[in-house]
Amino acid sequence: MSVELPLLARGKVREIYDASTPAAPDRLLLVASDRISAYDHVLPTPIPDKGRVLTQLSVWWFEQLTPVLESFGASHHLISATDVPDDVAGRAMLVRRLEMLPVECVARGYLSGSGTKEYARTGSIRDVALPAGLVEGSRLPAPVFTPSTKAEVGEHDEAIDFAAVVSAVGAGRAEELRELTLALYSRGAEIAEAAGIVLADTKFEFGLDGDELVLADEVLTPDSSRFWPASSWSPGAAQPSYDKQYVRDWLTNESGWDRTSTPPELPDDVVAATRERYVTAYEQLTGRSFA
Ligand SMILES: N#Cc1c(N)ncnc1-c1cnn(Cc2cccc(F)c2)c1
């Protein structure tokens, strides 16, 4: 695959290109690959159609979340998911180039990962006190805004408190980010729940187009969110990942990989089962068949 545009950035599983032209300046192309990462490593075996499924899922979520965005006087950055180069058809989004805000806007509806560790230490998540007795996987009394910094490629995002968001973007914009993040998460969680999926948490990125707040990046995908099968949700232990559990289980229990060396190739059955999870998530959420 070669996109004949200037490459601006390469993430673990995605690339971003300059798609501006004199007639249409300030445009980017976000391209999703079939690469999958696990345990902070990009695995050598691609998952066929992962890039297309997650791109089409973002496109669908942009449609679903537009009423929430409009209620805040905000919008999203998607211009087109069809007006893209042939060799990335279906797995690329033409978007508006924004002035990106330096905050990862994370919303958590359930206790998991770093949130559980913070709660165990402090009885709260950031400045939100939580009731006693919560465990890994517990649903929180209300979704919590847990912002972080945008780490350099390959680094981990760092948790920041609301005051740090205020310092970065100003008080009014910080409050707007928190409220919009929580509203978008709640709408997404409501739609996902109806499809049998627990949206445990998610990360949004926003930018500015002039003074307008704009939802950017990918949205509510299994790469930017924790998706759990609702049927197996059982607080008290790590919840199975909707999309990556086959990969994690094989790497942990079958492959003999030590998690420090180069990860091994995935067996065909794990690849096929993982592809099926992505397709099923898309079809369950959208009610559309994945072509
Ligand atoms: N979305 C968006 C966006 C926008 N609409 N305007 C300006 N900048 C960005 C932008 C810059 N970095 N990223 C993260 C990112 C995404 C995909 C692949 C990568 F390598 C890195 C997003």
Could you walk me through the main structural features you see in this protein, from its secondary elements to its overall organization?
With 291 residues, this protein is of the alpha+beta class. The protein is built from six helices and 16 strands. β14 and β15 (212-216) form a beta hairpin. α1 packs across α4 (171-194), α3 (162-169) packs across α4 and α5 runs antiparallel to α6. The mean pLDDT is 96. The protein binds ligand PZK.
Write the layout of secondary structure elements.
Elements: E1 7-10, E2 14-18, E3 27-32, E4 37-38, E5 41-42, H1 50-71, E6 75-76, E7 78-80, E8 92-96, E9 99-100, E10 105-110, H2 114-122, E11 124-125, E12 128-129, E13 139-145, H3 162-169, H4 171-194, E14 197-209, E15 212-216, E16 225-229, H5 245-253, H6 268-286
Parallel strand pairs: 6-15
Antiparallel strand pairs: 1-2, 2-3, 3-8, 4-5, 7-8, 9-14, 10-13, 10-14, 11-12, 14-15, 14-16
The structure holds the ligand N#Cc1c(N)ncnc1-c1cnn(Cc2cccc(F)c2)c1.
The ligand N#Cc1c(N)ncnc1-c1cnn(Cc2cccc(F)c2)c1 binds next to strand 1, strand 2, strand 3 and strand 8.
Descriptive keywords:
2 domains, five-stranded antiparallel sheet, 291 residues, 6 helices, 31% helix, Phosphorylase Kinase, domain 1, ATP binding, purine biosynthesis, alpha+beta, binds ligand PZK
Largest sheet geometry: 7 strands, mixed
Q: What is the first-to-last residue Cα distance? A: 21 Å
The overall average pLDDT, rounded, is 96
CATH hierarchy class name of the largest domain: Alpha Beta
The H-and-E topology, N to C, reads as: EEEEEHEEEEEHEEEHHEEEHH
| Architecture per CATH nomenclature, i.e. the level-2 architecture of the largest domain | 2-Layer Sandwich
Percent helix, as a range, is: 25-40%
Q: Would you tell me the structural class of the helices and strands?
A: alpha+beta
Low-confidence parts:
none
Total domains? 2
How many E-type strands?
16
CATH topology title of the largest domain: D-amino Acid Aminotransferase, Chain A, domain 1
Radius of gyration: 19 Å
Tally of helical segments: 6
Q: Indicate the overall shape.
A: globular
Bound molecules: ligand PZK
- The CATH superfamily title of the largest domain: ATP-grasp fold, B domain
**Share of residues in strands:** 15-25%
